[in-house]
Input
Amino acid sequence: MLTNYIPVLVMILVGVAFGVFSVVVSSNLGPLRRFKVKKEPYECGMKTQGATYVQTPIKYYVVALLFLVFDLECVFMYPWAVHYKKLGLFGFVEMMVFIAILFVCYLYVWKKGALEWE
Amino acid sequence: MIEFVTILLVKTLVVFGVSMLIVAYSTWFERKVLGHVQLRHGPMRVGFHGLLQPIADGIKGFFKEELVPENADKPVFILAPIISIAAALSLLVVIPFGDSVTIMGKEITLYLADLDIGILYVLGISTIGSYGCMLGGWSSGNKYGVLGGLRASAQMISYELPMALAVIGVVMVSGTLSLVGIVNAQAGLWNIVAQPLAFVIFIICGLAELNRTPFDMPEAEAELACGYNVEYSSMKFALFFMAEYAHMFVFAAMVTTLFLGGWHGPFLPGVVWFFIKTFAMIFFCIWERSTFPRCRYDQVMKLGWKVLLPAGFLNIFLTGLWMLVFSG
Output
């Protein structure tokens, strides 16, 4: 069965090789005319103002956490979905109970305002 | 053994070459279609109707000066485009281009690997591509880059969820995770008929994951000056660009595989049908780019979390109920 994964490995190697080849070749072929101003961060031609790394809004962390919760739920559902035809009514009721519990959590998250992006 | 290795290498090279050609020419196709939508001609100068334009662009990419900004994190800055392109190219392995054909008395399958977790592989690896955007934006030491990278990662993981939920409906109908199995299960009835809601959710999420126009927050030209790849130049920029178009090709191929019946179709050989459907989807991606204006970021997040996620749950519920009632 593992022979199935050999092409995956070969393709990843091809991808990495292509990327490294392009980067190395282009950095050797291109011209090299460097001076101070050119290496400053681009800001539409103006002098750079303020710090680059400002505080990240808390929203992004909340989204990441919510993603973890619901993505785990999806992972649980995949094996169930593959065998759904065999499980029949039992499988349907079981999964709907699971989804209902998580849906209550989802409504709680919504009510708490974690999904608002003012 | 030698035969196995030869076939594998030849197939890998053919898939790589064909995909690179498609990637190059979908840039030409996009510029041409956008041009004609706006009553322009698009590229016309290089070759007949600009047909050599992608090749000229590629050569130009190699000969441009390479810039690394002063306060960039150099190793990560160089690594990010390589991650992007490697992730995008390794997705090509599982695409089922067609059924098997017989060449010189040997049966050869027109896909590189038929993994039994094919669709999970696609969902997983396509998310690795967002590391490329995020690391690229973060390491370039530019405000626009950092913002673009942050937006890209938040948007991609938000739309990953409804996409996975939509795919669950397809898996329920087909009873397998293998892409070849899913195509075979559609011999009679295409999944677009059996799973219309999942189809709509999948397309919207796909466009959001590709950062295409109604959802192109990470690279909003007007506010972020191109976002995560603002500091990139020469071939490193081209690698990001190629990764984006390779993702678009994979997305079109996935819609074809999951919903449009893959290689199934009357009269013509399977591979031809696969490419007809895939190019129709690529055209759709370009068409909607020229039609819709950009959403605001809060609207994008609202659509993902408050509309598409419940719709994904609803689709699983309806599919379950439907299969229970009609197949006994």
